[in-house]
Amino acid sequence: MKQLHRITRTDESHWVGDGFPVRTLFSYNTPDAEMSPFLMLDYAGPMEFPPASKPRGVGMHPHRGFETVTILYRGEVEHRDTVGHGGMIGPGDVQWMTAAKGLLHEEMHSAAFTRQGGVFEAIQLWVNLPAEYKMIAPHYQSILNDRIPVQKLDRQGGFIRIIAGEYQGIKGPASTYTLINLWDLRLSEGHTLELDFPENHTTMLFALKGSVKINNASTLNDVELAFFEQAGTKVTLTALKDTTLLVMNGAAINEPIAGYGPFVMNTQEEIQLAIKDFNAGHFG
What we know:
By secondary structure, this protein is mainly beta. The chain has helices spanning 111-116, 268-279, and strands spanning 4-9, 14-16, 20-27, 38-49, 57-63, 66-74, 77-81, 86-89, 94-98, 103-109, 118-128, 139-143, 150-152, 158-164, 166-167, 170-171, 180-187, 192-196, 202-209, 211-214, 218-221, 224-228, 234-239, 243-250, 258-260, 263-265.
């Protein structure tokens, strides 16, 4: 059995631009070994936005040294970057952007969502890159809902969408640089599910809504994040309510982390170079 390490939550929120009301559940700024290869988890919303004439969001900003994974639950986001990628994602879609050696990008509410208004809800997860991949060319994966395989659970217990990695032999569409399982889990009230993970991998569960009993002991409620010990492989979940969970599991990258805002490298010298390159316009 994989033992629960701790459960955290935060009610503090801040705005990213004017379109994303965010709660940060963890960040590389407060490093903790069991989080690797994951760097940060932001939960945006849910929030009702009224109709508007000007799109809300966050304008052009840089990244280097890692990947951003945006999972949309409600609303629409349009992405554009300085290496020529762009597109829109809606409910159920995922945007997996490998910033690597550096780019600028913007994320805005779509034109249609801006006009109509509505509820916005999303997660952005930052995933670290091993040193050998931090300076490769940036690229982008638009993973639409119909490409994400769904495994239904027994006895109408819910379902799992496999975004990355593998669940019971079903592989997700995302291409990753480390071993990562990223699953969108919906567990129906009263149902129990046993999850099996690789030994000595980082494991976290974030509850967007609902309530589950973990290993027949602790309870994880909405907008809470559970961290597990790396030892062990199995976690048992029993839903006390209909619950939506993001399951994050991955092999730790055993390398130093040096970070400054949107740059995450291995040394302070590399951070200074990133700042220099950004100021010189090398990110596009």
